[in-house]
Design a protein that fits this description.
- This protein has four helices and four strands; from the N terminus they run E-E-E-H-H-E-H-H.
- By secondary structure, it is α+β, with helices and mostly antiparallel strands.
- The protein has a single domain, classed as 2-Layer Sandwich (Double Stranded RNA Binding Domain).
- The radius of gyration is 16 Å and the shape is globular.
- The model has no long low-confidence stretch (mean pLDDT about 85).
């Protein structure tokens, strides 16, 4: 899957990339090739054999550029992350919302330095945890 990541330089020789859809994944490299290899390794280490959900990638350029991680000092790139070596994966869903609600979701996601996909994932996990807690009581 093609995941967006934001690349900037930590200093004159090291590139650093952050993934908006994988907030804890950060890759480093002295070249773009090394950065890409490290990005794949970071995702594999974080998610392989994990129960963490790997969210679908954000494809909206406007949504990406509205994130706080886009400080204007770096560039957006898309990288192919091979998820066949990772046991956890996400699926794409499509649903409709009132436009005003979608604007509120996008604003809340931006404040959290997250994406729309991650916001909905976290909301679903939260609701299901509340449901499970209600059954135990």
């Amino acid at each position: 899957m093609q995941y967006p990541f934001y690349v900037n330089r930590d200093d004159d020789t090291v590139f650093r990339a952050s993934f908006p859809d994988l907030p804890r994944a950060v890759a480093h490299g002295h070249s773009f090739d090394e950065l890409k290899r490290n990005a794949q390794e970071v995702v594999e280490l974080m998610y392989d054999r994990s129960e963490q959900l790997i969210p679908a990638p954000t494809c909206s350029t406007a949504e990406l550029q509205s994130l706080e991680m886009d400080d204007g000092q770096g560039i957006w790139m898309f990288i192919e992350i091979n998820l066949t070596r990772v046991t956890s994966k996400a699926v794409s869903v499509q649903f409709s919302l009132p436009e005003s609600l979608l604007h509120r979701v996008d604003a809340a996601a931006k404040v959290r330095r997250s994406t729309r996909s991650m916001f909905f994932t976290q909301a679903a996990v939260h609701e299901l945890a509340n449901e499970d807690e209600g059954r135990v009581s």
